[in-house]
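ok so I'm stuck.
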Amino acid sequence: MSNIAHNIAQIQRQISAAAQRCGRLPEEVTLLAVSKTKPVSALEEAIAAGQRAFGENYVQEGVEKIQHFREAGISGLTWHFIGPLQSNKSRLVAEHFDWCHTVDRLRIATRLSEQRPAGMAPLNVLIQINISDEQSKSGIAPEDLDALAAQVVELPGLCLRGLMAIPAPESDWQRQFAVASQMAVAFTRLKSRYPGVDTLSLGMTDDMDAAIAAGSTMVRIGTAIFGARNTPPRL
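replied:
not stuck anymore, here's the structure
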């Protein structure tokens, strides 16, 4: 077993244990492998270990990986764009990715919808919430969610699937859980209004347990799978 395969198996065990501790089924939580800056060879090891969902932060790098595996004839992979999205890169996301986690304004949502090719299924999108009110983070304030969601669901090229957040780092589990619970409340309210909503992308290596306890359905794990981050590309 490769190091990456071992790491994936370990993370899956941690997800399973965290879910069981709060009375949830392990299969309710999807592991999204954050593969930004990692070479194709690392992703190949992860795929060989059964991993199918990958998250990329840099548009061009992600597109190159998508095209590589498509040309290699490897099917069944899902590609999630999880980085801040600039308007001039929206077409590449619309044309190549399956998901975009970082919708935080109507303008970018409209561009993604208009640029999604007609022959492809609608792009799955998550609205990013700035739950910790950090100036350095993207995302909308929780009180702005209802208005943006109502606009996004009307866009034909998109399918609103839920919410995403990157909370401020907290070392205390109870504080992590308190913030994650705020997201869970917003998620539950959104689900009650839109039947297609089913995804709460919340939790990384250091706060995964608390996020799962609060109700996260997707955790984003990078370093614990692939090792230390490489130098990001200039994209």
